[in-house]
Amino acid sequence: xxxxxxxxxxxxxxxxxxxxxxxxxxxxxxxxxxxxxxxxxxxxxxxxxxxxxxxxxxxxxxxxxxxxxxxxxxxxxxxxxxxxxxxxxxxxxxx
Amino acid sequence: xxxxxxxxxxxxxxxxxxxxxxxxxxxxxxxxxxxxxxxxxxxxxxxxxxxxxxxxxxxxxxxxxxxxxxxxxxxxxxxxxxxxxxxxxxxxxxxxxxxxxxxxxxxxxxxxxxxxxxxxxxxxxxxxxxxxxxxxxxxxxxxxxxxxxxxxxxxxxxxxxxxxxxxxxxxxxxxxxxxxxxxxxxxxxxxxxxxxxxxxxxxxxxxxxxxxxxxxxxxxxxxxxxxxxxxxxxxxxxxxxxxxxxxxxxxxxxxxxxxxxxxxxxxxxxxxxxxxxxxxxxxxxxxxxxxxxxxxxxxxxxxxxxxxxxxxxxxxxxxxxxxxxxxxxxxxxxxxxxxxxxxxxxxxxxxxxxxxxxxxxxxxxxxxxxxxxxxxxxxxxxxxxxxxxxxxxxxxxxxxxxxxxxxxxxxxxxxxxxxxxxxxxxxxxxxxxxxxxxxxxxxxxxxxxxxxxxxxxxxxxxxxxxxxxxxxxxxxxxxxx
Lengths: 95, 481
Description:
Helix content of chain B: 40-55%
Radius of gyration of chain A: 22 Å
Distance between the termini of chain B: 70 Å
Number of domains of chain B: 3
Number of strands of chain B: 16
Strand content of chain B: 15-25%
Radius of gyration of chain B: 30 Å
Helix content of chain A: 25-40%
Order of helices and strands of chain A: HHEHEE
Strand order of the largest sheet of chain B: 6-7-10-1-11-12-13-14
Number of helices of chain B: 15
Oligomer: heterodimer
CATH class of the domain at 5-42 in chain A: Mainly Alpha
Structural class of chain B: alpha+beta
């Protein structure tokens, strides 16, 4: 199984990664080999086997519905490059 | 061409937990921006989600209410996409193993017919934050208070065939979640939002046409209008020989039109996969059964009981049971009056009219159920007639006291003394001798029409206090002379 350059660019776009031509070549090669491995694994007969969603044989711990955190806005906003009126500012996302 | 419309709905209901789905931050509408956030909600590296017990209980409760299979093992999955109000880069949702599986609802339409709408699934997921696009000098402001607020997304089958049916279904979901107390049902604040999947096909055709999805419609009225305008738009295209493009659209209530948001070609590829930060949720039968035992009487059950216990019509029973607060108000008032039909008529009539005028809900009514019942008792025992009762209700609404206080203070008590009514009628007859002559000369059919004049005069003279049930026979007898 191999993927083409276009697939690599699409995957990069979905992950919001900028790839150079050289990067793309390299990823095309390494992603293809990962997919080959997957292909190999797919030849195993899994009839009657439930898909595993987590390798730990444990179940989710639940939290009581209580408010345990207080307002730490100032500390959180201090990490942001730009803020205004208590909001994080980001480059405009609407035309 | 005769088109059949095919509709499926996705309804996001915000669960009314105190804290968020995956963090201990407070949930609430209208707080100052970013004051209800934690490292988890901000998507900080290494911050781990812990699942809220109460959200789970609420989801299971809903599952029981729609006769659904409960997912005994459910799994959270990551839905990956980039948007600034989702700083993690993925929404934690459920895909292959939702908490609520297949169920259904029987929906009653206005004309009294019932249709069954299948529910494919309902799953738990977290809400995203909010983007504010105005006033930041070309930048977008991000408020993450809403981030990780628990949502239950209820997905219907494409079983709905009209705008009216869609609205009836959404109203029923609204009524169920508010009965269960798992959602405040406040659509204006976004506690319930609806995505509409809609396609047309020629009547009789089996396969579905290409559908569009109208996102985030947040009122019953807009749902209905959005559906009508989208049906029209699709029908126009198809009748001109065109093709429908599969895309996401937005409804603009001001222009009453839908417009394209993004087409399927550049649609997101969400790449769902099981969330490694959260383990599978495994329920015991005992847990599921215990929750079932706590289910309150649901709207449809209540409507059925109102028909059998109080002999109400199907329509009245349906209207009175559609909100839990209204149903309780009705039953409390009826327990005072002991006359269900009278209570139903007044609750759905005069009381609802006042509530609509002020645009308030029944639980904000300035006249409580018991006081309302006491007013109706005075109609039932003939102390006042219906017309006077409307005035008394107005006065009660303005806070002038109880029904009895107002009747007493304003001297509104109905005149039921035969002698007094006779004297009053005699006065009217004496003052209108010409009309009496005419009446006596007329034939019986005409007389029936003419008597209204005298009744009117008597009611006017008594300031509405004469008991009409007594006036009519006495007047008829005295007119004959």
